[in-house]
Amino acid sequence: MADLVRKIICDSVDRNGSCKIALAGGTTPHALYKQLAREGVSSDVPWQEVDVFFGDERDVPHDHVESNFRMAQRALLDHVPVSPGRVNPMPADSDDLHGAAERYEQLIRERVPTLPDGIPSFDLILLGMGGDGHTASLFPFTDALAERERLVVSHFVPVLGRRRMTFTFPLINAARNIVALVTGADKAEAISIILGDDEELRADLPFSMIRPTSGEFRLVMDINASRLVEKHA
Ligand code: 6PG
Fold first, then answer.
1. CATH number at residue 45
2. What is the pLDDT of residues 129-177, one digit of tens each?
3. Interior CA angle at 105 toward 6 and 63, to 5°?
4. Best substitution site from 1, 23, 28, 125 to test ligand 1's pocket, by max atoms within 8 Å of Cβ?
5. How many domains are there within the chain?
6. 184: phi > 0 → left, psi -120 to 50 → alpha, else beta; which?
7. Ligand 1 centre and the CA of 45: distance in Å?
8. What single DSSP character describes residue 221?
9. Which structural domain range is residue 221 located in?
């Protein structure tokens, strides 16, 4: 997985002189970020040409233990020569969360090249998946799933009882590369539905709405997350 990310970053910089990446939160990517920070992997990555954004964030300060930014900073960003001015934490603890989401969207529109349809296209968006099939902070049965205009929204997530800020699907699906890393037996049921053929069941899992408009989507799983997937002959 680290080699895949390294390759995408190097290709993007070779192609465009920079790489626009959105990092995933939660716990799964922590090991990936640690691996990316290791000398043997990171030494040939042109980190100084990488612009770092975040696909979602919790409504906590950036030094809070639950912060996705803090996790990425400690596992990766503090250990590689990214330019501080090119790391863009999501301001998800702002008092004016809606205004902060609009400002983060505006920042993306200014910094990330757009597709012909005017939607910014990240070189790479990393995602995870919850056991309920959520991805980023797009949770089942929330209005944010249907958002087609806004690229970044903040919303109250009833199942968490908390507010979150998140990319929406128009922005996620505009990426050149979407890579989802899903590990653990607690994700197996959702994965088997996502890769199964029951449209009705799949429709309730936000992860199934990842459909790149012109880019590539790769799902990387461990043996536990994929254990219920029918082995198609
Ligand atoms: C977050 C993440 C979220 C995460 C899934 C999986 O803020 O929690 O963005 O979408 O990817 O919840 O979380 P784990 O990797 O901890 O299982």
1. 3.40.50.1360
2. 999 999 999 999 999 999 999 999 999 999 999 999 999 999 999 999 9
3. 65
4. 28
5. 1
6. left
7. 26
8. E
9. 2-232
